[in-house]
Amino acid sequence: MKWEVRRPIKGVDYSTKKIIEVHETTNYHLFAFDEQNNREVDTDSDHFAKLKDSIKREGLKDPIWVVEEERGGTVLFVIAAGQHRFEACKALGVPVEFIIIDDDSYSLLLRVVLDSLTKKNILKDFIDMGAARGYKIFKIVKQLVSDFCVEFNNKYSAAFETVFTIIANRRKKVYRNSQFMKHCKISPEITNNTLDQYANWPIYEEEIDAIYKHTRIVADIARAIRKNRIGVNFNREMLRLLTPAKEVESTPEEILAFLTKKENSEFREELGKVYSGKDSQIRSTLKRIDEQILSSSEISKRRIKRIKIEPDVKKSESVWGKEEEIV
Questions:
Q1: C-alpha of 71 from chain center
Q2: CA 89 – CA 62 distance, rounded (Å)
Q3: Which of 264, 43, 41, 64 has the alpha carbon at shortest distance from 132?
Q4: What are phi and psi of 69, to 5 degrees?
Q5: Can you name the CATH fold of 23-120?
Q6: Residues 204, 246: Cα–Cα separation, whole Å
Q7: 3-state secondary structure of 67
Q8: Of 167, 253, 251, 37, nearest to 159 (Cα)?
Q9: Are 114 and 186 in contact (CB under 8 A)?
Q10: Would you tell me the crossing angle of helices 252-259 and 265-274 to the nearest 10 degrees?
Q11: pTM of full prediction above 0.90
Q12: Smallest Cα–Cα separation from 211: which of 149, 153, 166?
């Protein structure tokens, strides 16, 4: 038995509300970026290389979306979505296909783009977004990764946790990137709120010094145990040494000095084995090292002193942001 296939009929079942025009040009100077909402384009990344190769072989599959905006007496096409595709077309010298949307559609488009970022779960995209809005704390993360690009392997997790533990949490506890991402994954509105809470966050010179000092020590320890990058879990355990919740009384400097001694190869090897392991494995090894550096009485003495001391509350003038009380 042959079934009749019924198709929707234009004008009966549905109507056309708007026809979208797709334009193209090689006049790349007509375009501009939305500095606050566009992600940074890394033209040296594998993703960008694959995108160029795809466009070269198959052409641009999805046009970019732009909104017309007057800047300095000239109307430009500001890219709302597709900055990577634009840069790839420009690098190849091929026409850019684009769709002009109106202002009413722009806020909706930003929500769609932001929603796609939340689903991809990419930490760097949110850091880029915060930095593009001019928020200093995110700029410091990017600068730290740039300054220690080899040690961080151009990855952001360890650098992010270092900066946010010292600046956002004021060293009270380790700031895990997972708690930040958990908020950013809920919705575009909460993503914006999570970023915007750091708009005027006070940052102090001593905190920046502490960030770089910590990173240098962790990188040197990694090198001592023949690792060429800063591991996220290991960095997290070293950050714990800066907080009241630490279980190791030796300072990071003391641990580094111990591991660089020739006779301590056994402990270098042991730490190297758990370096990329679970937090608990790393912590256990650090405790063993702690017992080698300090006597049991010294460990007890430091612990008692640390627990009994009441924190001094003082005022300090921030490099950025308002003056506030810090502990």
A1: 30
A2: 12
A3: 41
A4: -145, 135
A5: 3.90.1530
A6: 23
A7: strand
A8: 167
A9: no
A10: 120
A11: no
A12: 166
Give residue for tokens 């500001």: 78
Question: Would you write out the chain's pLDDT as a tens digit for each of its 327 residues?
Answer: 556 666 777 777 777 776 678 899 999 999 988 766 666 777 887 888 899 999 999 898 888 888 888 888 889 998 878 888 999 999 999 999 998 877 655 555 555 555 555 555 478 888 988 998 999 999 999 999 999 999 998 889 999 999 999 999 999 999 999 888 888 777 777 888 899 999 999 999 999 999 999 999 999 999 999 998 999 999 999 999 999 989 999 999 999 999 999 999 999 999 999 998 888 999 999 999 999 999 999 999 999 888 875 555 454 556 555 444 333
96-101 vs 23-25, strand pairing mode: antiparallel
How many other C-beta atoms are found inside a 10 Å radius of the C-beta of residue 103? 9
Position 137, amino acid: I
Enumerate the domain spans of the chain. Answer: 23-120, 123-308
Report the 10 Å Cβ neighbour count for 145: 21
Residue 4 φ then ψ, to 5°: -85, 130
Name residue 10's beta-bridge partners. 14
Specify the residue for token string 């958990």: 182
Asked whether the beta carbons of 164 and 137 are under 8 A apart, the reply is yes
Q: Which stretches within the chain are classed as H helix?
A: 46-58, 83-92, 103-120, 123-132, 136-147, 149-152, 157-163, 177-184, 188-196, 205-224, 232-240, 252-259, 265-274, 279-293, 296-308
Q: From the CB of residue 273, how many other CB atoms can be counted at a distance below 10 Å?
A: 12
CB–CB of 63/99 below 8 Å?
A: yes
Considering all CA atoms of the chain, what is the largest pairwise distance in Å, rounded to the nearest integer? 91
